[in-house]
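Hi everyone,

Forwarding the result from last night's run.
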Amino acid sequence: MRNIVRCTVAFLLIFSCSQSDTHVIENERAIHLPILTTATISEITQTTATSGGKITDDGGAEITSKGVCWSKTANPTISDLKTSDGSGDGEFDSAIVSLEAGEEYFVRSYATNSQGTSYGNELIFKTLNPEVDAKVFEGDVVLTSQKEVDEFGAENYTKIIGSLGIRDSNSPTTIQDLSPLNSIKEITLNFHIVNNDALVNIVQFSEMTSVLGDFLILDNINLKSISGFDNIREVGKSFRILGNYNVETLENHLNIEAFKKLQSISGEFTLSRILNTGTFFELETVESKILIEYIQNIVDLSFIPKINSFNWHFHLWQNENLENMSGLSAEIKSVRGELSIGGNPKLMNLSGLENIGFIETLHISDNAELNSLNGFNTSGFTVNNIEIFRNASLVSLNGLQFITAISDELRISSNDNLEDISALENIAEIGGEQSQGGVNISSNNKLIELKGLENIHTIKGELFIYGNSGLKNLNSLSELRSVSGEILISENEKLDDFCGLQLLLNSDLNNSFDISENAYNPSAQDIRDGNCKP
């Protein structure tokens, strides 16, 4: 018996040791190099910058050292200059020092564990140029050739009291390099880069902080990228980048990677025919209209997160991958002009507009996939004009139930699948004392009734209902007592019940009145007499 016990204990000890050894081997095999990313380069000066990293996987072993390394050549390692930012995983900040002014550097984060050192993604940045003595040019400058750019740039002006225009007048054009102008910090009037066919990239102007007039980059048909202007903070009038594409190859969209510190634009803000918008993360104020059109890669509006008001029109047109309006600042409470959203083929809803309480004109058209108007302020808001037309997938107006007043015009037209407008049920009056608008409901072929207009008693303007091939009755207008403008009800091929107009026609009505080309066409007197349907 004792021998059996001894054998059993020995077997268990051997099995236990074998199992423990197996776990150790498995644990050792599980250890691998760390995985990490490099933080964006920021706070760039002539001799310093800030970066860091984020360790997302320690590799199964303790991180014993971490930081960033850098050099003037690609793929820096810890054998080059580096920071030492402690141990452990997670995020860390790194101060890059002892740099040379005006030089390009390559940076990677690093992390070391028992298996060795691994590196994050590589970033490239350029330190600020050496300080130069202030040198002012008084007057307007127009540079029309590369020779003129070189000669003016050799003077190292830091400020132009006037305008700077770069417009190549040669055939073929010669302006390809704007780096001689990099000393310019301030332009007191306009800055235009226009019609330079040989210009492919703009990577200069890193010293520029303000343009106090118009900023315009226009019709440079082979321009592919803008990566300069990293320190510009103010544009005194309009900011426009448009028309920079080859008309024969529209896929040659412009790529913008600049303007990260731009804070205010005192005129309009236009971006057109662009692959990427860049990051306007500091832009808070635009005093005039905003036009964002033909931008290929935006899916939302997160590239302008700090704009705190729309002081005039805001247009979003033909942005082929725009899906929603999210990313806007919660500070935006109103659009004091027209909010126009049109021709965005992937836009499905209006989420992102929840904080807006007033819109002068809401214009929504030609958004093929838009199936909902949800996204507006749930506590109620007012609109002067509503124009909704040619949205092929729109089935209802859900999302507009929070509108309590329309002070000018309601136009709903040519929405092929629109069946339900009941979201308008909280509106009692349309138009105002100076109104030339009214109600226009036309060519919505699946609209069978006007449910949603039951509470409207006054229209200060015209009433047009025409071309709605599925409309059968006007019962939802039974509370309508007053229309100040022309009344036209025509070409609604199934409409044969006009009894909803009896209250209106029994009032003192002297309007132009036209009922024609419907399934039944009673006169005004027929409706008053009760002959309002066959």
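Helices lie at 2-30, 146-153, 502-505, 524-528.

Cheers,
N.
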